[in-house]
Structures are given as C-alpha cells and as structure tokens.
Amino acid sequence: MSVSSAGDTSGAEPEVLTLPEISQRYPGRWVAMTVTERDGNLQPVKGRVVENDVDRYRLREKTAKYEEICIFYAGDSPYLLLL
After folding, report:
1. What pTM value is reported for the model?
2. Containing H/E element for 7?
3. 72 by DSSP, 3-state: which?
4. How far lies 32's CA from each of 35, 37, 39, 69, 83, in Å?
5. pLDDT tens-digit series, residues 1-49
6. Is 47 exposed, middle or buried (0-12, 13-18, 19+ CB in 10 A)?
7. Domain map of the chain by residue range?
8. Among residues 36, 35, 33, which one has the least CA distance to residue 6?
9. How does DSSP classify residue 73?
10. DSSP secondary structure, 12-71, as one string
11. Nearest to 7 by CA among 41, 59, 46, 48
C-alpha cells in the first residue's frame, strides 16, 4: 500500500480540513489543497490537502495535473526570515 505525501494510506479522498487545521498538521511546509469552501470574499476556508513539501517549486511540479489548486505556506512566512 502506498502512502501519499498528504499522509493518506487508505486510497480514499483526503478529509476536508479548515485552514487552521491544515496549518497545525503541516507546520513549516508548503501545502496544496483543493478548495471545498470559500468565504464571502471567495477566499478559501476549507479544503482537502493533496500534496505538501518543504520546497514550493517542487510542490508546484507535483500539482500541475490539477485544474484548480490553492497553495499556501503553513506557518510564519519564510520570506520574513530573509529581512
């Protein structure tokens, strides 16, 4: 049985999580999710994690097959460390 990078071992679709739940499960990683719910401003609030990685560019390569995907960093911005 294979394990996806999102941690799913059952072959079933990943569970729907809120953004805070995703950030808690994948701290310090770039996360790609399919959006299942948006707020009044059309911003994502819930979704299914399909991939995650420490490298943003590698993650983009892994998710090229998806038509619509939301990618975000689960944690404090890594770019603030460069200042």
Report:
1. 0.75
2. none
3. strand
4. 9, 15, 18, 6, 26
5. 333 445 555 568 889 999 999 999 999 999 999 999 999 999 999 999 9
6. buried
7. 17-75
8. 33
9. E
10. SPPPPEEHHHHHHHSTTEEEEEEEEEE-TTS-EEEEEEEEEES-HHHHHHHTTT-SS-EE
11. 48
